Amino acid sequence: MIELTGLTKKYGRIIAVNNLNLKVNEGEIFGFIGPNGAGKTTTIRMMGGLIAPTSGSVIINGIDMLKEPERGKQCIGFIPDRPYLYGKLTGMEFLRFTADLYGMGNSNFYDKAESMLRTFSLWDWAGELIDSYSHGMKQRLIMSAALIHDPKVLIVDEPMVGLDPRAIRLVKDMLKQLASEGMTIFVSTHALEVAQDICTRVGVIHKGMVIATGSTKALVEQAMVDREDLESVFLRLTEEAA
Questions:
Q1: In whole angstroms, what is the distance from residue 186 CA to residue 232 CA?
Q2: Minimal CA–CA distance to 160: which of 168, 170, 152?
Q3: 111 shares its domain with 69
Q4: Residues of the domain holding 156
Q5: Domain CATH for 190
Q6: Checking DSSP bridges between strand 76-79 and strand 184-188, what pairing results, if any?
Q7: Is residue 215's pLDDT more than 70?
Q8: Considering the entire predicted model, what is its pTM?
Q9: Distance (Å, whole) CA 120 – CA 170
């Protein structure tokens, strides 16, 4: 469902992502972890078609994002780490705007929009300007917008930023449910406990290169740590690769 082959991004002499190869299967929640500056966000932006790779390819749902970016984006829901919202639109108007970009008709928009807004506890604020939303509400609205068109693939950069514990639980449960229904989910996060809780597999990126992939159990064995948690794995693997 997601295939990254030889994916490389250079900025002058700086190699942000170096010959990255990954495959994520349908219905899988794949966690992408690494230190600051490791290349996580650059990778995600290439996957979402926001920036072009220097070399290599991104195949989403069988579609080459470089050759057919518009068609590829139709099957992606994208949640950036710092989403941009139009503050002078209401929550409902923003969902309508997003749905129009994906070519959704009126027949199925309103029921879907109401469902999303209710799911993320935003229905009572649907007619209010986004400028009046808290940071957490804005984050939940961008999640609603990313799911409005029922994407095949969801790409998420730091999904829990600004969310309270109740909202974090809601998002984790929702991601698990969506994956069980066949959606492929790619999550980049610094919250290692979140990755350990929801991800079927995890990839560790360091200095632009993927240095390990596998389940938490497999990574524990590879890193040869005593505790079965991603924090210990992360520290050991990134220290060894320093």
A1: 22
A2: 168
A3: no
A4: 2-75+152-240
A5: 3.40.50.300
A6: unpaired
A7: yes
A8: 0.91
A9: 8
Of 174, 176, 90, nearest to 130 (Cα)? 90
What is the rounded distance in angstroms from the CA atom of residue 29 to the CA atom of residue 13?
33
Mean pLDDT (the chain, rounded): 91
- pLDDT of 240 reads 66
Residues 169 and 129 in one domain: no
Question: Which residues make Cβ contacts (< 8 Å) with residue 78, sequence separation at least 6?
Answer: 48, 146, 154, 155
| Token pair of 16 as six digits | 């942000």
Average pLDDT over residues 134-160: 92
Q: Which two tokens stand for residue 172?
A: 């984790």
Both 61 and 158 in a single domain? yes
Residue 241: pLDDT band (50, 70, 90) is low
Looking at 150, 178, 193, which one is the last position of a domain?
Answer: 150
90: which DSSP letter? B
d(CA 229, CA 202): 12
Give the model confidence (pLDDT) of 171-190 as tens digits.
899 999 999 999 999 999 88
Considering the domain architecture, whether residues 122 and 170 belong to the same structural domain is answered as: no
